[in-house]
Write a structure and sequence with these properties.
The chain contains 14 helices and 9 strands. By secondary structure, it is an alpha/beta fold. It starts with a helix and ends with a helix. Pfam families: DctP.
Length: about 325
C-alpha cells in the first residue's frame, strides 16, 4: 500500500464523527428481579435501549445491591443513581406527608378505586409535590395489597396483641400496628428476613410476591390474607438531570416508561396470584382466609387512623379517596 493511500485512509478515519458514548442510567431498587417491580425495571431497560437505538444503556441493580431503603433517595438527589422506584411510604420521612395517604389501612377496596385515585387529580397533585425535593415522579407502579404474616395464627383481632411487627418507616403504619395492639418495628426491607430468622421481629406485612420472592415462608409459619393495605411505588428521577436530557432522548425514555408501566400493572396481580399458589404448594406456611366478620373487626379497629392523620395528610385527599370508592360501589 502506498504512503499516499495510507495517509488518505488515516485522514478519512479522522473525519468520521466519533461514536458518542451511550448515556448510562443506573436504576436501583431493593426487591428481587422476579417481583413485579423487578421485572418492570428490566422491561424498561429493554425498551429504553431498543427505542433509543443504543444511545441509552440502563443498568439495573436489584436487591439493594447499591443502596438500601434509607439511602437510595439521597443517592438520587446527588445523582449517584438516575432512577429509583421507592415505595410510597418512603416519601413521608422525606417531609412529603401527603404520600402517607397510600399507607392508610382499608382505604382502597380494590384496584379500580386505587388506580382512579393515583391516576387522577389526587395522584398527579402528589407527584407535583416531589419537585420541591428536586425529584420528578414519572409513574406509579403496583405491587399489590398487603397481608399480615407471623409465627402464630392471626385469626382474629386479639391475636395481634404484643406482636413485634416490622413496618416500613411510616407514622401511619406505626399507628396501624398500635391500633391492633402490636408493636411497630421500622426496618429496611433488606434486613427483614434476617430479623425474622433471628426472632428480632415476630411478623410483617407484604403482598404475596414479596413474601414469596424473599423466601419469608421459611421464617413465617402463618400468612393471613387480610388485604388491609396497599404497597406501591413511584418511579422517580433527579429533576434537574432529567430535564437536562436532550428532548428526543427524554421523550423516548418517557414513552418507554409508559409502556413499562402498562406491563407492570398487568403482571402485578398475576405475580401475586402465582406467588400465593407457590407458598401454598411449598407447605411451609399455613395460609388463612379471614372470615368476613373478623375482617370487618380489623377494619373498624384501624379506621380511627384515618381520622388521626387527616390534619397531616389532608382531609381533602382522604375524603377524595372516599368519594372514589363510593363511585365504584355497587348500587344498594
Amino acid at each position: 500500500m502506498s504512503r499516499h493511500l495510507c495517509l488518505l485512509l488515516v485522514l478519512s478515519a479522522l473525519a468520521l464523527p466519533a461514536q458518542a458514548a451511550p448515556l448510562i442510567i443506573k436504576f436501583s431498587h431493593v426487591v428481587a428481579p422476579d417481583t413485579p417491580k423487578g421485572r418492570a425495571a428490566l422491561k424498561f431497560k429493554d425498551l429504553a435501549e431498543k427505542m433509543t437505538r443504543g444511545k441509552v444503556r440502563v443498568q439495573v441493580y436489584p436487591n439493594s445491591q447499591l443502596y438500601k431503603d434509607r439511602e437510595e433517595l439521597e443517592a438520587l438527589q446527588i445523582n449517584a443513581v438516575q432512577m429509583l422506584a421507592p415505595s410510597l411510604s418512603k416519601f413521608g420521612p422525606l417531609g412529603l406527608r401527603e404520600f402517607e395517604l397510600f399507607d392508610l389501612p382499608y382505604l382502597f377496596p380494590d384496584e379500580q378505586v386505587l388506580h382512579r385515585v393515583m391516576d387522577g387529580p389526587i395522584g398527579q397533585r402528589l407527584l407535583q409535590r416531589l419537585e420541591s425535593k428536586g425529584l420528578l415522579g414519572l409513574a406509579y407502579w403496583d405491587n399489590g395489597f398487603k397481608h399480615f404474616s407471623a409465627n402464630r395464627p392471626l385469626h382474629k383481632l386479639e391475636d395481634f396483641k404484643g406482636l413485634r411487627m416490622r413496618i416500613q418507616p411510616s407514622q401511619v403504619l406505626a399507628a396501624q400496628m398500635r391500633a391492633l395492639g402490636a408493636q411497630p418495628q421500622p426496618m429496611g426491607f433488606a434486613e427483614v428476613y434476617g430479623a425474622l430468622e433471628r426472632g428480632v421481629v415476630d411478623g410483617t406485612e407484604n403482598p404475596e410476591s414479596n413474601f414469596f420472592s424473599q423466601q419469608m415462608d421459611r421464617v413465617q409459619s402463618h400468612l393471613t390474607l387480610s388485604q388491609h393495605g396497599y404497597l406501591g411505588y413511584v418511579v422517580v428521577v433527579n429533576l434537574r438531570v432529567w430535564r437536562g436530557l436532550p428532548d428526543d432522548i427524554r421523550l423516548t425514555l418517557e414513552e418507554a416508561l409508559r409502556l413499562a408501566t402498562v406491563f407492570e400493572r398487568q403482571i402485578a396481580r398475576e405475580d401475586n396470584r402465582q406467588a400465593l399458589a407457590r407458598v401454598r404448594a411449598a407447605g411451609r406456611t399455613q395460609v388463612h382466609v379471614l372470615p368476613r366478620a373478623e375482617r370487618e373487626r380489623l377494619r373498624q379497629q384501624m379506621l380511627p387512623v384515618h381520622r388521626a392523620f387527616m390534619p397531616v395528610i389532608g382531609r381533602d385527599l382522604i375524603e377524595g379517596s372516599y368519594r372514589a370508592a363510593a363511585e365504584s360501589a355497587p348500587p344498594p
